[in-house]
Each structure stands twice: as C-alpha cells, then as structure tokens.
C-alpha cells in the first residue's frame, strides 16, 4: 500500500451512510411509491446503527421525505439532509471513494459517466465536488481523477487487495490493457495487488458486471459470492465459472480464501425482462449487515450465509424488489463514509 494512504474495508467503523431520496425527476418516477417504501425501510435500518445522510433535490422534497420518515418513526436525530440536485440515486457509483491518509482522509472524485454513457449524468458527476464545497468532508483532501470508475466496480479487503471484473473496466476503457488498468487502480487506490474476475454477470445488469453484484470481501480472508445451482438457469455456466475463479484466488500470503456462496433466488421478471436480483449487493454498517430481500424463500438462506461470514453482526433484511426494476439493489444506492470523515 502507498505510504500514509489506505483504502479501508467496508466493515471498518463508519460515520454515516450517504443516499439520495428518489423523486419524480429520477428514473424511479414510474414506480415511485414502491421505491419510497424501500428507502424508508433502508433509512430505518441504517439509523438503528449510525447516521444517514440523505441528499434531497430541493426544500419541498426534504419536507416530504422528513414527513415520510417521521411517520415511520425513524430516529430523526440520526438523519441529515443535504441539498443537491441529482440526476439519479445510484450513489455507490457517483459518490466519494474515501482513503485514509495518515490521520485524515483523501476523497477520490472519479469521473462518473453513468456506466459508459448509458444515461444522463452531468449533475451526478458533480456530486463529490458539491458535497466537499458544503464542507461535509471536513478537512479531507478532494482529488479529482479524470478516469471513469464507479464505486460498485471495486471491492477492497482494507489490507491492500482489490477485487474487480475485467468486463467492467474494459467496457469503460477499451483502449487500455489490463496491465495499464492494474497499475492505475493500484496507484490511485493505494493497493498492493488487483484480483481480476473474467467471469460473472447478471441479466438485467447495466453496470457491465460490477463486482458488488457478484463477489464481496468479508473479514479474515473471506469472499462472499453469488452462486447459481440451477443447471437450467441461463446464469449457471457463467456463475459456475466465476465460482471456480474465486476458488483459485489466493490471499496475499498464498492461502485460499474462505468461501461463502450465496443462494440463488428464483427468477424475477418485469414482463419479459429478467431483473438482476443478487444477494451479494449487501451493505455493511456498524454492527450489522443490511441485505437485499426479494420476497423469495432464499432470502432467509442468504441471511444465514451472511451471518456466518460476518459473525457478531446482526443481519437485517431490507425489501429491495422495487430497486431491481432499475437494475440495481441495496449496495448500489448507498455509500459509506468512514468514521471521522463526516464533518
């Protein structure tokens, strides 16, 4: 790792979780009532353990969101509203990537292109700069990096190892070799090495195989990953190949990782469109793991796997079926802020 710089793991102590409230000007307009219920459940879960920072597009939206949360008996002492006019609510990808720098922090502000220019993202690309200008990151240094990278596309163990997928980084930077991308990621993110997965995808995913839908680090050299045990499913061959890749990975000192395969939910369709339901898209908070639940019998099985992978943490199921209508889930709409960063 780069001297004085470290990219903390998600399970390290946090100050707050950053989200953005959905509204009629976002892509949630078609099913806004349903997705609001998910956001209310999410904020209620977060505030059991720590603060929630909620971006709101204007004063009216703040008033509305506050009323909805109060009616759900959310602890409003742990809620902070932040004015910012955003394109959409996928803050895992438009939000800050935070490194510890000595006793302080460095906030990385990568270019956000809405997953390779698939959607409008001009305002979202200004999010980190706007939050820094409001003084929300205290004395942290903001580093703008003219390179397209989303937080959902990278996963760290906090000890110098990064996990990512070849497909996502190649789609963003088709002219760059893996060697070049490897060097850039290690440099900017203060990593000793990058582990690349060549397999793994979800139908309905428009992120080009973000790692946070597929495989995640857990403490003590563990990897939790989305498995598929149904040979008749279209994902079977690819996720089996990914599982074999993960089994072949080694820790920095050469040992196999402890592996925790997550169960496979039954297909969820929106008309003829398969939706990207993954249990790997969980969020770690202080003392708990918030996991996406889809109203499937596998929800409880996934909770049991996560309880084993994260001993001592409460596993909280958050209903996320409305989220996958827009091709993301729980982790995708959140970004953790390490303890000490929040001003």
Automatic annotation (TrEMBL):
GO molecular function, one term: protein-arginine deiminase activity
Keywords assigned: Hydrolase
Keyword Transport: no
Origin: domain of life: Bacteria
InterPro entries given in the database record: Peptidyl-Arg-deiminase_porph (IPR007466)
Record bears the keyword Metal-binding: no
GO biological process: putrescine biosynthetic process
Protein's name in the database: Agmatine deiminase
Source organism of this protein record: Pseudoxanthomonas suwonensis
């Amino acid at each position: 790792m780069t001297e004085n710089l470290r990219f903390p793991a998600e399970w390290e102590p946090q100050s707050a979780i950053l989200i953005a409230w959905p509204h009629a000007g976002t892509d949630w307009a078609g099913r806004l009532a349903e997705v609001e219920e998910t956001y209310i459940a999410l904020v209620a879960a977060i505030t059991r353990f720590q603060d929630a920072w909620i971006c709101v597009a204007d004063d009216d939206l703040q008033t509305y969101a506050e009323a909805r949360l109060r009616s759900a008996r959310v602890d409003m002492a742990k809620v902070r509203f932040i004015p910012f006019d955003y394109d959409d609510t996928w803050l895992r990808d438009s939000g800050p990537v935070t490194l510890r720098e000595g006793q302080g922090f460095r906030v990385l502000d990568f270019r956000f292109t809405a997953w390779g220019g698939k959607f409008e993202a001009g305002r979202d690309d200004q999010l980190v700069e706007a939050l820094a200008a409001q003084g929300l990151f205290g004395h942290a240094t903001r580093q703008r990096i003219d390179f397209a990278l989303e937080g959902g596309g990278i996963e760290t163990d906090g000890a110098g190892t990064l996990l990512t997928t070849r497909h996502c980084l190649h789609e963003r930077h088709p002219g760059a070799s893996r060697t070049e991308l490897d060097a850039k990621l290690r440099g900017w993110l203060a990593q000793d090495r990058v582990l690349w997965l060549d397999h793994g995808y979800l139908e309905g995913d428009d992120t080009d195989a973000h790692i946070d839908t597929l495989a995640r680090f857990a403490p003590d050299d563990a990897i939790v990953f989305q498995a598929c045990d149904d040979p008749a499913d279209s994902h079977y061959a690819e996720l089996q190949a990914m599982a074999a890749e993960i089994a072949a990975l080694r820790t920095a000192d050469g040992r196999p990782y402890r592996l925790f395969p997550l169960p496979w939910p039954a297909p969820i369709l929106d008309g003829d469109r398969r939706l990207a339901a993954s249990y790997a898209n969980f969020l770690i908070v202080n003392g708990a793991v918030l996991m996406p639940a889809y109203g499937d019998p596998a929800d409880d099985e996934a909770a049991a796997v996560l309880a084993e992978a994260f001993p001592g943490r409460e596993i909280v199921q958050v209903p996320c079926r409305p989220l996958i209508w827009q091709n993301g889930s729980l982790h995708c709409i959140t970004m953790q802020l390490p303890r000490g960063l929040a001003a």
